[in-house]
Amino acid sequence: MRRIELLAGMLCTGLLCAQVVSPPEIRDPELRELQEKHFAELKAAAVTIASHQFPYRFYFSRTLDLDQDQQKTRDQRSIQFAKYGHQTVVQITGNYYAAYSDELMKREERARRTFEDVMLPLLRAEVPQLSDEPKLQGFALEISHHVRKKVLGVSGEHPENVVLVIPKAAALRLIAAPDEPTQAMALEEGTLFINGEAATIWGRMTTDAPAASVAVPAPVPAPTPAAVVVKPAPAPTVAAPEPTPDALKGLQTAYQETLDKMVRELDQTAHFVSYAPPVFVNFHKGIYLQLSIATTIQSPEPSSRYRAAALAFDEQIAHLIRPVLACFKEAPQFAGIDFSTTVKPAGQAVEYIFDMANLHCYAQFDCTGQQIVNAGFVLINGERVTLDLEGAER
Hints:
Layout: H1 2-11, H2 14-19, H3 29-37, H4 39-50, E1 58-60, H5 68-73, E2 80-84, E3 87-101, H6 107-130, E4 138-151, E5 154-167, H7 168-176, H8 180-187, E6 191-194, E7 197-199, E8 214-215, H9 245-270, E9 279-283, E10 286-296, H10 305-326, E11 336-344, E12 348-355, H11 356-363, H12 369-375, E13 377-380, E14 383-385, H13 389-392
Parallel strand pairs: 3-4, 10-11
Antiparallel strand pairs: 1-3, 2-3, 3-8, 4-5, 5-6, 6-7, 9-10, 11-12, 12-13, 13-14
Helix pairs in contact: 4-6, 6-7, 7-8, 9-10
């Protein structure tokens, strides 16, 4: 059984590996079936969450109360169907590295801030994707943040855990609420715990707390990509729809026949993940086609994650760009393509996200691999990186 779980973990791809639990790891048959049935929707929610800019570092995690150095090396797959009491819920667990002042903010105010900055964006990403599932009864969020306080005159930090369980109908009203009073009415149907004690945050809270109430660490900005392509090839494009849930579903329906044909024709070289079919996702306010694939590097195991990502691009991703583009004869109605893969034997989850203009530039030999990488996004285990192809492969 342990061998099966390890293989399942290696098959997870891109942000999936960083955020979504693979179905074979779930022991309960009913929950495993739901995880498999809605795998594409869970991945779509994960990509939306990954593109959100949280005020402080946020990591999905199997374990609460980890310090940030520990978290970087731990399993970050946490989105899954689970049982909360007698309810079937979608559960998300994560560590949020904001440190609130115990002197300046009461515990309910701290929970309120974490709800607004973390929990509400998570619900806005996942609820629309899964609200049509009749067996789903609610959503459960487990988030740990930090509190700075003095003990015997010595300043220190300690974790504080906030858990919110909310019924599906109330969650739908919450994310659609136009103002704070309407949000409060929806939240009254949920249950909140702070460090295991029942609490409430939807009373009247102080909304004009001084900026000093939230302490270090400061948010770490994403690295700025290097220069964009020098000779972008003119690519046929049409106005892409706004990335709403209805637009995503509409594109999925419109392109499903093309996607099925692409999988059949390219699977021998692409190695598509069978339980994660191509799906349209929201990334940076645009609609991208996410292709989940597996990559096996033929050379000896890479010495670093950057070398693994560089070899994967050169040995597989670069060779897929032209045949994938050839599958779309008409001007595509989406912003770009997300090549999402797990690099074996290194086990690194890597995503290469490129817009259509740069994909066509590369396909027509007007751009190098390095130029398209610089112009796009490369994520390793859910973290954006700058990738020097030549330097990494040395």
